Structures
1.
Amino acid sequence: MRLFVILIILMVVTGFSTGVNVVCPVKRYVVMLFQPVTLRCNFTTTATVPPIVTWKYKSFCRDPIQAALNPGSAENAIAQANPNYNPNIECSDQSRTVRIVASKQNSVTLGTEYQGRKISIINNADLNIAQTELGDSGVYVCIVVPPQDLSGAGEDYTELIVLE
């Protein structure tokens, strides 16, 4: 028992936390209008309580199709000079639409704009959209928050492009 108490004290003093690692393994999905898609999100955590999983939608900063058709633009030149910069997705949230798609702890709750649609969080953290719409094109952020995690949430993103 004494060893257990010492171990707990060491964890508190050293700032031990359960930690969470989140990865969206596919960075871009391209689907046809009305087709289903499952946006994958994998996570690892040492927490014993199931985490809260939230998917957030962010509109593109600029249309990636138009950007591809205009390779000589100034933004594309900047992106070529800095491979870590993506002008399609890197802009402030104040300059684009941001909304909650769905959240899951024990059950799935859809965001206001997604009520009535066949959308769910499956396989722990994957976002399943049964029938895509044109307005679904954008950046999707998977956020995982283990209730026991003292260090905060983990997140990653993927892009969805819906073609007509």
Note: Confidence is low (pLDDT under 50) at residues 1-17.
2.
Amino acid sequence: MPKKVVFCLGDGGNGEYYLALRPHLEAAGVEHEVLMDPKGAAKVLLEKRGIPFRLTEGKEDIDCKQYDHVLVGSGNKARDLIRNATENAQKAGVRVTWFCDIPHSGCEEAFRDLVPSSMAVFDGLTRDRLLKMKSALDESKIFVIGNPAFDNLPTLKKNHAVLRAAIFSSTGLRDLQDQLVVYFGSSSAQFDLVGESLEPQIEWVQKNPRVKYYCATHPADLKKDEVTALVATLGSQLITERFSNDDLTVAADMVVTDYSTLGIQSCLIGTPTVFLMGPSAQAYQEKERGAKYPVFPVLDLARGFIYQGKSYTPALGVWNIARITEALDKVLLDPDQWRLMRLAAQLPEFERMADGHAGERFIKNVL
């Protein structure tokens, strides 16, 4: 076990990953520091919890000699930090591990010339993809971990009925009559969130009086006020009470999201999910990350799920905004489609990705 490690964080996903690891690090007696890119959402998450970190954009050299292990999370905005930390760790002869969503977010295009000492990945498909693109990386140094941020999912799934009843009761919703749709927004700085994601959803909600809508904004969204004002037009169909994202993914009848880790979480819980990836989001993925369409391991795994001669996944991806309404109708208003999407999460492959032990595997195999 190393004496001292450093985590280099950027986006919200690896911020949640790190937060879930903290109890395991403390239990194992691992001293650690955090270097934080100021542009990412992870900064907001740690600030809310009063967790100390040192800000750096990674443009200056990072002294890695003081550490036994450098652990680098992802985040397109944190490219300089990822590259600097990796290169300086290697120059200092210090082990460097990449973790979180670098291997399957499109960020890999920016780092094809870098090969870390090891990688902690979400699932076997991500490992296989890495072996093809980084032939210099030893297969034994790619650890299939899952995501520690999902280690609470078994408990959430077990408490599904209780959590749903609590949210429905506190908001005045009727379980057999109302349908709860939760939208986890991405960042307006990256996508045309309002025009391509929100406006089509709001039009759809207004045409479906049984639907009650909850909008959770991105922690780093610079246009949060504009988003809030738009969803407020839903009036009585809008839920304004505050709930945790975890509870919402369990209680919802359907989750809608852009490019968000919460979408993968809702799939693993068994909540039917719709991913929106309109033109501006596609352009962002292609220009900034080198991948026109994001890769979601959950959707990859579900391609082999056959039921009565048909293949079903726990989520639908919508690339044409003109078809958003069609997708929402298909998931929420077709009881057979909705039921089969929930069944997808019961596959053994899905259960292994959310078995509650990713944090333990990280400490045992990566550190």
Note: Residues 153-353 form a domain with the Rossmann fold fold (CATH 3.40.50.12580).
